[in-house]
Design brief:
Length: 300
């Protein structure tokens, strides 16, 4: 190889070395300016007990706290508003998670009852149940018909014993919970789902209705059901102020006549005669001159 060729080869190799060095220097500078990527950690808010909570305690805001955790527990609660006012069935120690197992597990119908309410079933048919048009969630008045007899007369009467009572089920149809409520029971929503025509058919074929009755009225309703005939009166959608006036009505008031019974005045002479027969009579013979008279006295 000639000397010129060697010189040209050397120059090219030198220029290539310069280019490689410049590229390496440029790459190293760019890698230094790029900031390392940060790794984001996902945290989950979960409700824990701020203090020891005994079994049967009704939760308040001061009993609860929110803590963040890197692991998610699907049985935990993520908001304190979901738990305020609920009663724990099992004790919870301080710092422990509030889980679904800490609360009573109730059926769909029981979850629809409010505080102080009791579910009472009454027998219904197409007439008692307003032609079967009563739907779960409606409000009704409960009337009772009584037919009393004392052996001498018969008196029929009717009156309203309960007002503005909520129907939580009619036949096989259960009331649908308010979807806006955070405590809406999923089981109740599942039982209440379905087409309106199917729900109406089930209601028409039902033989009982469950009413949400106040605790102090449960015995009153049971006594009325056993001693008379119940009838449900459907209330409208417009809110009405309950009247305090009594609607006790007798059949004699409607007919304009009164059924008379034997009064004590008729029995009084009978008692007097019976008493008179028990009073002893004393006879006294009196001699006046040549006359003799006999005088009778009551008593001795």
């Amino acid at each position: 190889m000639s000397g010129n060729a060697l010189r040209i080869t050397a120059i090219l190799l030198f220029m290539g070395a310069l280019l490689i060095g410049w590229y390496g220097l440029r790459t190293s500078q760019q890698s230094e300016t790029v900031a390392p990527s940060t790794i984001s950690i996902v945290r989950y808010s979960q409700v824990v007990a701020r203090q020891d909570i005994p079994a049967g305690h009704v939760l308040k805001l001061e009993d609860l706290a929110l803590e963040e955790s890197e692991t998610q527990n699907h049985l935990a609660y993520h908001s304190t508003a979901e738990l305020i006012g609920r009663m724990v069935e099992a004790g919870v120690s301080k710092g422990s998670l509030l889980l679904h197992g800490h609360f009573p597990q109730r059926g769909a119908a029981a979850q629809l009852l409010k505080s102080g309410e009791r579910g009472v079933a009454v027998k219904v048919d197409e007439v008692i149940g307003v032609g079967g048009f009563i739907q779960p969630g409606d409000h009704v008045d409960v009337l009772v018909y009584l037919n009393t007899s004392n052996g001498l007369s018969t008196e029929s009467s009717a009156q309203s014993i309960l007002r503005d009572v909520r129907v939580i089920s009619y036949g096989e149809t259960l009331q649908q919970s308010d979807p806006a409520s955070s405590n809406a029971p999923p089981a109740a929503n599942a039982l209440a789902s379905g087409s309106s025509s199917q729900g109406k058919a089930q209601a028409m074929s039902g033989h009982s209705a469950v009413l949400a009755v106040k605790e102090e009225d449960v015995a009153r309703l049971m006594l009325a059901a056993s001693g008379g005939t119940l009838r449900l009166s459907l209330r409208g959608a417009v809110l009405e102020q309950s009247s305090s006036a009594s609607d006790f009505v007798r059949l004699s008031d409607i007919a304009g006549t009164k059924q008379k019974a034997v009064t004590p005045a008729l029995a009084k002479p009978v008692r007097q005669l019976a008493g008179a027969a028990r009073i002893p009579i004393t006879s006294v013979v009196m001699h006046v001159g040549d006359k003799t008279e006999t005088v009778n006295f009551k008593g001795q």
